Write the structure tokens for this entry.
Amino acid sequence: MVEKRWLRWIGPGVVALGAVGFIASTTNGAGARPWTPGACAGPPSARIEAAREVVPPGLADLRTTPWFRLDPVLDAEGASSGRRLAVGLDGDQTARITDLSAESFAAGPFGRVVLVGSDDGTTSDLRAIDIAAGCSWSIGRERAVIRRATMDPTGTEIYEMRVDRVSRADLGIWLRPTDGRAEAHRVLAPIAADGRFGRTYSTEFTWDLAGDRLAIQSCGEAACRIRVIFPGGGPAVTLDAPDLGLLIGLDGDRVVTYVACRGFPCPIVSTNMESGQRRVLAESAGPAVVVGTDDGIRLVHEYGTPTGRALRSVPLDGGTPSDLGPLPDGLDLHAGPARADAATRIPAGWILLAPDGRMPADRSSRRPHLRHIPDGVTVPFDEAAR
Amino acid sequence: MTTLAGPQHATRWARTTRWLCIGVGAVAALTIALGGASAHGPDPTLSGGPFGQNQDLRFRWRSGSEPTATIKTAIKAAAADVNTSRGSKAATFTYDASGSNPIGYGIGATCGVNGLACFSRTVPTGFTMWLREQGHVFDWGTLKWCQAYTTPPSGCYDAQTIALDEFGHIEVLNHHDNYDNDADYEDAVVQTFSRTKPTAGWNMHAFGRCDVATLQRQYDMQSWTAKYSTCLDLTTVLTLTASPTVVALGGTTTLTATLTVADYDSYVRLGGNPVSGRVVTLQRRAPSTTTWANVGTMPVGASAGTYVLLQRLTADAEYRAVFASPTTEGLDGDISPTVRVYVGGCLGAAALDIAIAIPCY
């Protein structure tokens, strides 16, 4: 039972990747088409069920796995005029494009569902899109700005981070049912101002590998604070060390983060939230993910070699690292959504390699590849998803 | 609630601890990154080490993610700022349409959720850099690049300063560790927190002295006469030799002082450097006395770091060389050991290699 839960959440919580081989040729090419999803029919229970589907157990299941990607849209002056959301299924040959406001986000996938938030300057609209069914439903509309949202492991609850529309003050974390049966209520207070971190640039949600805990990360310009709560709210455990940066993954009491770097390479550490003990997992790492494997939970990260870049796998308990071979030319490890603004789910034990660590921009780009841990077997993604 | 301690707040400057905190190499850099550095020293370093000395890193605009014209201008200006203010043999940056190092803007940026810009560095082959797009929305509000306005509004970020910060990271610099009150903010461009117009430091267009200090340690000086950053506090070693040490009455000896930076591992590339073109003073006293008198400034010698002055002697004398701590650079003064020169008698005759009628005993 435990293993099944882990299996289900290993995708969105750990892999959280978004590179799909054919996406490049669809987002910018002939396969992309504008899309406004219609309203989902059926009872609320069906919507919740859409968010409960398990992560693809095998490569062949990738064809029905959703993905999304967000890109800024720039006007003639080079300023942001909005964001473009591309969604699809890995087995599709067509990406569906939706233009969002400049203040917007996407999260997931949760089962077949991607959460999308978009703010028009007066109201924030939060919707769930069932990618497979090609429809959506409204989660809620708020006068406050909904900056981020996530769905709980059961598919029944939505967590939102909100800011005040005028002052941009943090309004805390709010919880509402997916089926709209009740109003949202606040489950976590705004994070306190702290000069060691500066003003908050972004707040991100990350579920732990078992889906039992939710990390809420508030990042300043370089350093981040993490508050971990249990589903439904409750007391938060806070990690507020100003030398820590972006969260890579959460496994029980252990959080895996970069230190507060602004670029790569950057050290990666594992911190026990209860004891405060730290372990250096990588002294000089590039993009990284936390992945479930048959050999336990591992950090996989890029690192530099005298001849280029390669991949290394490190057990979170500090065991012996293992090399996964060099990166193919033109491909990078696809990191989590907080870094890539894109995500999909892939089977446990695999990592995804893509141009620039996200979806390729055009047909001429290299095709993404999947690489297996720990043997390093590599397969083209689109062949695997065929 | 468990709140974990981060790095200790900066301790006040103390010379000993300061140098203990100067890390070298990846392990030391990691220590600094995880444990914090003492305040107001040279910038910490990133892992991966520096590029080659004076390596010319050529950048181009990333296809599909080209910066706007004004941002391109700002980035090129920042590259020029590096080249003119590095004060060392740090790598230089040059725009080249066929360069191998892409700089992007907005679309496709993989900076993660925080920050105005980001980079990657792969020593010794190259780097990447991204700047967020104008209008990117963060929790705190909307990013404004000053370059996007004819009259930049308060609250905008100067893209030239931010790009210079990123170039500094690419070189090897980590964020400067400021005093608690940030009084030393303008000692470094490479900062954890970027400032907006009109806060002091929002538009710095040259590396600060503590940026330069680390660049000097990691890349070495451009010449032996170049000034060391005042953010450094380098021990120097001054020696003095006389040749010959015994002269006849009225004879001359050549006094040669040699000034170098102490050869400490923590000084990285600066250890043992000859220090040329400084003011080194020769002092003299009679043996068995305590008062030194200035003889004069020693002219620069033929060899790097040397200073030479000839002396004609009519009596035994003791000499020493003095290098006073300069106020304009980060070198500590030093005084050489004393050298004694003998005059006359048998020793003097022997020194002159002349025939002696009376045996010397």
Summary: The CA atoms of residues 78 and 203 of chain B lie 11 Å apart. Confidence is low (pLDDT under 50) at residues 1-38, 355-361 of chain B. Chain B touches chain A through 59 residues (CB under 8 Å).
